[in-house]
Design brief:
- The structure holds two protein chains of two kinds.
- Chain A folds into two domains: about 160 residues, no CATH class; about 80 residues, no CATH class.
- Helix content of chain A is about 75%, strand content about 5%.
- Chain A has 13 helices and two strands, in the order αααααααββαααααα.
- A two-stranded antiparallel ribbon of chain A has the order 1-2.
- In chain A, strand 1 and strand 2 form a beta hairpin.
- In chain A, helix 1 crosses helix 8 and helix 4 runs parallel beside helix 8.
- The termini of chain A are far apart.
- Chain B is mainly alpha-helical.
- Chain B folds into two domains: about 300 residues, Arp2/3 complex 21 kDa subunit ARPC3 (Orthogonal Bundle), CATH 1.10.1760.20; about 35 residues.
- A two-stranded antiparallel ribbon of chain B has the order 1-2.
- Chain B is globular.
- The chains are: A mainly alpha, B mainly alpha.
- Chains A and B meet through helix 1, helix 3, helix 4, helix 5 and helix 6 of A and helix 1, helix 2, strand 1, helix 4 and helix 7 of B.
């Protein structure tokens, strides 16, 4: 039960973060969405055994976290929570691929381990980019950006609705689960026989609610289109932000900067 | 099972994005055409319901693990394929953004895997065929269960294909299929039973809810998709046959997988660190078996593969440079932080 409330808190907290006032928060959501996509594509397009070229990319999430005043530990915790899937698939690499790829003195590292760490870094970078996007922008603004960038309107309206009623329904769910657990002395999990009517009831309530909402909307003149008063402006700041970061990502992608630095230092000695 | 950004290549991610975007556009057009205004809030709110319902876990008897509703099939039954696909897409979008399930590039894959198969394959070709319009409880039960299983098997198979084509993971095709399909067979059975039970619950207390969706589904648009049946059936048979083959192993493999299945199915934050560590432990326990078999099989292939030359010098420079770059980026972060602090 605690997890249901935690989830609710979690989503709400991300929204609180999005209401920050830094210059990053104020950028047009489209700029942040496009930059995030560029970032993810550049990171993912790196070769399977690439580790060193990925390291410079850390600068993007780090800069965003620091100058967007986001809580680093909280985001880190969120990333670690979803890590098991990537680990699960990635861990097969060291087992399948035992060819020695890196030789450091007497220590030899198999290609599988390299690609495993590559997967983990990839994972950390892409996941943090998505989380940063939402906590700098907020869900509603991301939806607006999606619509402006050409996503079909029914889909966007749908997303807005889902988000709006998420809180209401999670609240309702946690009340139902709490009521059940109070009546069963808090013991054990929910039995299948209880689960079905529980979810069924929730579904019926949801359907009723949807009908009421629709009637209320009709009363207020709903014609299949939600109008949002906030206007978007893709100005100089947005262009500068998107271009500068994209260019930087492109450089990171094209030149192995850590290797160059390393060679420079090795040459010095 | 959510596909992750870390495991796909841009080509695969991009292709699936295009496919998914096309499907979303198509479904949106369809929804606009048979404009039934009440459906739009209904879709959104039911999407929120799926989200909320996923947070209720029930215990699976005798295994100690727990499961929850997945949602694709129940959406298709309640809303019809087009609306269900859009709703599933938005549920997955919210999951990707807030819980970092999957990722932005992998979102296309995830929507396709978890939305397309239940809505456009399992629902019209399995559920509708079995249930028809005469509504008997047994038929609904069978239809929903089979459709949920098939939808998940196909989705899981697609995860395997996407991973394979991306080439980031080393898992050989056979091993991956043997690993993933049985897990999803178990998940699918649980999902199917839950789906059918909930659908029957709704049908008993509010039959008009199901009838309205049944009558509003246009059966006309499926002529092209009929061509796909052959392909889909082939993959289904392959997937299921392989699953059964794996389940026939007498060594408790299935038991272990079933145990992990419940954990595997949990989404994001519900996945406690404890349970995931346990999963990994269980996995590694039977891993040597797999590793041994396939490393033998793959040996000849590996030998012929061209590897990048091993050069200690380059590795050393890379390592030193990498560490330095990392220090540099962290330093940049600190500088910005300092500057911000002095600004305030």
């Amino acid at each position: 039960m605690a997890t249901i409330e935690n989830n609710l808190f979690d989503i709400g907290y991300m929204d609180t973060l999005a209401s920050g006032t830094t210059s990053l928060h104020q950028l047009d959501p489209r700029a942040k969405l496009i930059t995030t996509l560029m970032f993810v594509i550049m990171v993912v397009s790196l070769g399977k055994y690439e580790i060193s070229m990925m390291i410079p990319f850390v600068v993007y999430p780090l800069t965003m976290i620091v100058s967007g005043e986001l809580p680093f530990n909280y985001l880190l915790k969120k990333i670690i929570l979803v890590a098991p899937f990537a680990i699960l698939i990635g861990i097969f690499n060291p087992l399948m691929d035992r060819e020695i790829l890196v030789q450091l003195g007497s220590l030899s590292i198999a290609g599988g381990w390299i690609s495993f760490f590559s997967i983990m870094i990839r994972f950390g970078l892409t996941v943090s980019a998505a989380l940063i996007l939402i906590s700098l922008t907020g869900f509603n603004a991301v939806c607006m950006a999606l619509e402006k960038l050409g996503a079909p309107r029914p889909f966007v309206i749908q997303l807005l609705f889902l988000y709006r009623y998420l809180f209401v329904l999670i609240d309702e769910t946690s009340r139902m689960v709490r009521a059940r657990s109070l009546r069963s002395f808090g013991s054990g999990g929910i039995h299948f026989k209880v689960f079905v009517p529980l979810v069924g009831q929730l579904l019926l309530r949801t359907l009723d609610r949807a009908q009421r909402i629709h009637l209320a909307m009709c009363c207020r003149g709903f014609d299949g289109h939600i109008r949002i008063s906030r206007s978007l402006k893709f100005g100089f700041n947005e262009i500068r932000f998107t271009l500068a970061w994209s260019l930087l990502f492109f450089c990171f992608r094209s030149y192995n900067i850590p290797l160059k630095i390393g060679e420079l230092i090795a040459g010095y000695f | 099972m959510h596909m992750a950004d870390a495991l796909i290549s841009p080509a695969v991610g991009g292709a699936m994005w295009v496919a998914t975007a096309g499907l979303i556009g198509y479904c949106s057009k369809k929804i606009k055409e048979d404009i039934d205004d009440s459906k739009i809030p209904l879709m959104g709110v039911i999407g929120a319901f799926i989200f909320a319902a996923q947070m209720i876990n029930f215990t699976i008897p005798a295994t100690g693990s727990s499961g929850h509703l997945g949602g694709g099939m129940i959406l298709a039954i309640l809303l019809g394929p087009y609306a269900a696909f859009l709703t599933m897409a938005s549920v997955l979008t919210v999951q990707a953004l807030f819980f970092a399930d999957g990722g932005l590039l992998a979102l296309g894959c995830n929507i396709f895997n978890l939305g397309f198969f239940p809505c456009f394959v399992a629902y019209p070709f399995i559920y509708k065929r079995i249930v028809k319009d005469g509504q008997s409880q047994k038929m609904m039960m069978a239809g929903a269960t089979l459709a949920a299983i098939a939808g998940l098997q196909l989705g899981a198979f697609c995860v395997v294909l996407e991973t394979l084509f991306s080439g980031i993971s080393e898992l050989p095709f056979g091993t991956f299929v043997l690993l993933v399909q049985p897990i999803h067979l178990a998940i699918g059975i649980v999902e199917g039973l839950v789906t059918s039970a909930v659908v029957i619950f709704v049908w008993k207390s509010r039959p008009e809810m199901l009838q309205s969706s049944v009558s509003s589904i246009a059966d006309k648009g499926y002529s092209i998709k009929r061509v796909l049946i052959g392909f889909v059936a082939a993959t289904l048979i392959t997937g299921c046959a392989l699953s059964w083959f794996a389940s026939a192993h007498p060594d408790g493999l299935e038991w272990a997988m079933f145990k992990t299945a419940g954990v595997e199915e949990l989404e994001g934050p519900e996945k406690g660190l404890h349970s995931s560590l346990a999963t990994i432990q269980e996995k590694t326990a039977f891993l040597p078996d797999y590793g041994f078999k396939s490393s033998e099989a793959d040996h000849s292939e590996e030998a012929t593969k061209a590897w990048p030359a091993v050069d200690p010098g380059t590795s050393m420079s890379g390592l030193v440079g990498g560490v330095l770059t990392l220090c540099l980026t962290v330093f940049i972060g600190f500088v910005i932080k300092r500057r911000k602090a002095t600004e305030v």
